[in-house]
């Protein structure tokens, strides 16, 4: 880039000098042509003798001798505007001069008009020398800055590599540092830190799932072991009841694992959807019909409110399972005599109750796997219901939000 710039400047300098020489010679050409038309031969010769060599070198051969600053006319000189370079020797310190000139055809014969151009060549040489120095200094400065910049980049890369080794060793709380430059490395570090945040969150979730599995399955498995040990000591009349209790505990364990597998298949898209047009109004009517008896068994009031019907493309079985889980939770955790409302309006379905509700800090956490809030630990369940609900709704591009019902909880599903 620098070389191209210097070459362009050099070319512009040459063109400008050539234009100046041509313009000067054209001006002198016109002057002496007009002079020859207005004065006699003697006055013409006098004007040539009086010409200042600093302006132009003039030479004209009169009938007697050569008149002007030059004592000769080189051979094969062209007629202006064509020009030719030729040397002259002087007695000064600079003995050799280079002139550029041509002939002017006047009434008194040809007149040689020339101007010095060797000083232009000197100027060009100085320009070339200065340009070479400029290019050299620029390249040197560029290399120095490039070296400093590369060292800074390498230093950051080495630091990042050292931190990545710490992460590889299990220090998942390590984060890449950010500078105030907000450059590409900072953008990369921000993205990498977000990935680390997600990874750490997922690892904590896995640990939480493991703890919850151990907490939820330890009791039934312990009951199974103790029950099996005691079977031999029980009378034959009590064996059937004891076996039934053990089977119930085993079924609970198996239901937990089956729910986890189903949740994984739904989240990963491994379970295909049986898509069909589903009426949200009809879906809510089926839910009400199924859950009304459950609510009456706890002396609760379940009401249904329907508005404009909307049909969506979805898996009716999975959608019913998700919404029934929400209604079942409302019945399950609300006290005797509670009011539970199932409302559908367009693409919005809400399920509200006036039970104990959920703290704001837990409204997102309850959708995680095997999360069961402490007050509900004494109740049987897998802790996967709301996780399954969210997974099913996400597969149907729906969003679920838990809100306060003042008192109680309101679950809103927006399709």
Automatic annotation (TrEMBL):
Limits of the HAMP domain: 151-204
SMART domains referenced in this protein's UniProt entry, alphabetically: HAMP, HATPase_c, HisKA
Annotated GO MF terms: ATP binding; phosphorelay sensor kinase activity
Catalysis performed (reactions): ATP + protein L-histidine = ADP + protein N-phospho-L-histidine
Enzyme Commission (EC) number: 2.7.13.3
Cited InterPro entries: HAMP_dom, HATPase_C_sf, HATPase_dom, His_kinase_dom, HisK_dim/P_dom, HisK_dim/P_sf, Sig_transdc_His_kin-like_C, TCS_sensor_his_kinase
Keywords on record: ATP-binding, Kinase, Membrane, Nucleotide-binding, Phosphoprotein, Transferase, Transmembrane, Transmembrane helix, Two-component regulatory system
Keyword Ion transport: no
CDD domains: HAMP, HisKA
GO cellular component, one term: plasma membrane
Location of the protein in the cell: Membrane
Keyword Ribonucleoprotein: no
Domain Histidine kinase: 212-415
Membrane-spanning ranges: 127-149
Protein name listed in UniProt: histidine kinase
Species the sequence originates in: Shewanella denitrificans (strain OS217 / ATCC BAA-1090 / DSM 15013)
């Amino acid at each position: 880039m620098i070389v191209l710039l210097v070459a362009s400047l050099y070319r512009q300098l040459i063109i400008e000098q050539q234009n100046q020489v041509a313009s000067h010679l054209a001006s002198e050409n016109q002057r002496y042509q007009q002079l020859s038309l207005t004065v006699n031969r003697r006055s013409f010769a006098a004007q040539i003798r009086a010409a200042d060599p600093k302006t132009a070198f003039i030479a004209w051969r009169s009938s007697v001798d050569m008149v002007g600053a030059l004592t000769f006319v080189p051979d094969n000189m062209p007629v202006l505007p064509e020009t030719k370079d030729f040397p002259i020797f002087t007695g000064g310190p600079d003995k050799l001069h280079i002139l550029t000139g041509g002939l002017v055809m006047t009434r008194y014969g040809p007149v040689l008009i020339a101007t010095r151009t060797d000083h232009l060549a000197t100027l060009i040489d100085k320009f070339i020398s200065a340009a070479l120095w400029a290019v050299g200094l620029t390249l040197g400065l560029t290399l120095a800055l490039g070296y400093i910049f590369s060292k800074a980049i390498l230093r950051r890369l080495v630091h990042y590599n050292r931190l990545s080794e710490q992460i590889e060793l299990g220090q998942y709380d390590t984060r890449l540092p950010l500078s105030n430059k907000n450059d590409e490395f900072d953008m990369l570090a921000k993205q990498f830190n977000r990935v680390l945040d997600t990874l750490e969150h997922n690892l904590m979730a896995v640990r939480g799932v493991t703890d919850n599995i151990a907490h939820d399955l330890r009791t039934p498995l312990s009951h199974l072991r103790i029950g099996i040990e005691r079977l031999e000591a029980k009378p034959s009349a009590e064996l059937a009841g004891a076996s039934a209790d053990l089977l119930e505990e085993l079924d609970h364990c198996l239901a937990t694992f089956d729910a986890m597998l189903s949740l994984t298949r739904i989240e990963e898209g491994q379970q295909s959807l049986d898509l069909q047009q589903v009426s949200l109004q009809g879906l809510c009517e089926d839910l009400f019909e199924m859950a009304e008896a459950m609510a009456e068994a706890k002396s609760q009031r379940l009401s249904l409110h329907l508005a404009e019907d909307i049909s969506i493309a979805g898996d009716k079985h999975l959608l019913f399972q998700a919404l029934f889980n929400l209604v079942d939770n409302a019945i399950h955790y609300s006290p005797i005599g509670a009011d539970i409302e199932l409302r559908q309006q367009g693409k919005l379905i809400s399920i509200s109750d006036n039970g104990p509700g959920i703290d704001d800090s837990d409204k997102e956490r309850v959708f995680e796997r095997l999360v069961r809030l402490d007050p509900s630990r004494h109740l049987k369940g897998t802790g996967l219901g709301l996780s399954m609900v969210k997974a099913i709704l996400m597969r149907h591009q729906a969003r679920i939000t838990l809100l306060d019902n003042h008192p109680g909880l309101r679950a809103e599903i927006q399709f």
